[in-house]
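hiii, so i know i said id send this last week but things got crazy w the move. better late than never?? heres the sequnce for the chain we talked about at the cafe, plus the structure i predicted for it. fair warning i was half asleep when i ran it
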Amino acid sequence: MTCEGETLVVNLNGALIMTAVALRVAMKVSIHVRLTDKRAAAEVVYVDPDQPRHCGIKLERPENIWGVSLPPNDWHEQ
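okay and structure toks below
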């Protein structure tokens, strides 16, 4: 099955996404980011009980598939 979705929040470990169809916790999914043309395997780790199309996913391997700018390695929060 393939469905459209939208990222709401992203980080190197995963994302909060909104999908066209409801997903289930523990589902294995493949993410394709059109902006970067990158793909990654992920698992659904959270489904909002009030909005079942809002899901948290965990990437199989932490990486920046999203194309967002990251802080430099020597940057530390004070």
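btw The chain has a mean pLDDT of 92. thought thatd interest u
miss u guys!!
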